[in-house]
């Protein structure tokens, strides 16, 4: 039986569609999970988009700072970035919006605002993303988690997003290459944001409904803020939302032997949270002051532990108090 050298047009089109689908599946399958380590990223750097995120971009061009302890070279402060990394300014992930006639800072951007920001950093569509925090402190992990949450909110599939556990601190401590040249994109990309995924978001009205029905409300801030003993300058009053339970930031991160801050494993989180009396972490709503602590908790529960149904109230205490709503303290 002879076969012609030309494939029928409809078969050719079906083949193109199938190959495109297989390519997307193959790319999505690159990431081993929500967290990667430095050796894995070094081996797969060409297969992913490495996106550095930090709140002080000046350190991108600084040399790392070391000291000597008992004859050993110890990294004190991250400097530089992974070669060929893109750069996201953490402070650019929130915007000012008008709430009840007031201009409120640190709010979730619109899809258009987020899209413009990601295009400016040359984020590519349909290519796995590894987010790299500094790893110098727990706050940097929360910043990476917040970015991961926003990416998922605006349409990036979860399986295409991972965080480098330990961040640049772990990368440098492991002896991998560091670049101190400025990251200065000369063009923009065609990355597109989708409408926000409402399954990941909670509104003020939904928080109030959870209060009325005794739904699960989790406060992801440090315990002193939950108790009303401390507050951040962003919010006018110390306190918490009525009916909230603590999911304290102190339980979610550890300082590793190399000095980097890291997320824990799903197995360890289950033991830690159970030991703290947190037997239920979903479905419900998690909040903090402006979204950062809450995103860290969301990443732990939703991505690392694999427990779905936890939504974030992105405006947090900031939006709540700007609306003149009540808070309580011990």
Automatic annotation (TrEMBL):
Keywords: Pyruvate, Repeat, Signal, Transferase. InterPro entries: Rhodanese-like_dom, Rhodanese-like_dom_sf, Thiosulfate_sulfurtransferase. Coiled coil: none annotated. It comes from the Bacteria. Pfam families: Rhodanese. GO terms for molecular function: transferase activity. Residues 44-180, 211-329 form the Rhodanese domain. Residues 1-28 form the signal peptide. The keyword Transferase applies. PANTHER family: THIOSULFATE SULFURTRANSFERASE (PTHR43855:SF1). This is 3-mercaptopyruvate sulfurtransferase SseA, contains two rhodanese domains. It comes from Thiomonas bhubaneswarensis.
């Amino acid at each position: 039986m002879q076969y012609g050298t030309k494939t029928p047009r409809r078969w050719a089109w079906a083949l193109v569609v199938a190959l495109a689908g297989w390519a997307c599946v193959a790319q999505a399958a690159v990431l081993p999970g929500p967290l990667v380590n430095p050796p894995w990223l070094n081996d797969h750097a060409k297969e992913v988009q490495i996106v550095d995120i930090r709140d002080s971009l000046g350190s991108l061009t600084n040399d790392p700072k070391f000291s000597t302890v008992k004859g050993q070279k110890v990294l004190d402060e991250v400097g530089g970035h992974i070669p060929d990394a893109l750069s996201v300014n953490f402070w650019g992930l929130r915007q000012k919006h008008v709430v009840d006639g007031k201009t409120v800072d640190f709010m979730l951007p619109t899809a258009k605002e987020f899209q413009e920001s990601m295009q400016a950093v040359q984020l590519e569509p349909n290519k796995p993303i590894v987010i790299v925090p500094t790893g110098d402190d727990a706050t940097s992990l929360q910043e990476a988690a917040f970015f991961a949450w926003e990416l998922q909110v605006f349409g990036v599939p979860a399986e295409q997003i991972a965080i480098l556990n330990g961040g640049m601190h772990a990368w440098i401590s492991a002896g991998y290459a560091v670049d101190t040249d400025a990251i200065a994109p000369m063009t923009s990309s065609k990355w597109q944001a989708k409408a926000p995924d409402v399954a990941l978001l909670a509104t003020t009205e939904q928080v109030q409904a959870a209060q009325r029905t005794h739904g699960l409300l989790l406060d992801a801030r440090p315990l002193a803020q939950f108790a009303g003993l401390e507050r951040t300058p962003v919010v006018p009053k110390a306190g918490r939302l009525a009916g909230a339970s603590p999911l304290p930031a102190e339980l979610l991160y550890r300082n590793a032997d190399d000095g980097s801050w890291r997320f824990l494993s799903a197995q360890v989180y289950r033991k830690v949270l159970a030991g703290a009396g947190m037997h239920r972490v979903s479905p419900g709503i998690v909040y903090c002051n402006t979204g950062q602590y809450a995103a860290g908790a969301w990443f732990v529960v939703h991505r690392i532990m694999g427990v779905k149904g936890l939504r974030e109230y992105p405006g947090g205490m900031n939006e709540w108090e700007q609306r003149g709503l009540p808070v309580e303290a011990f």
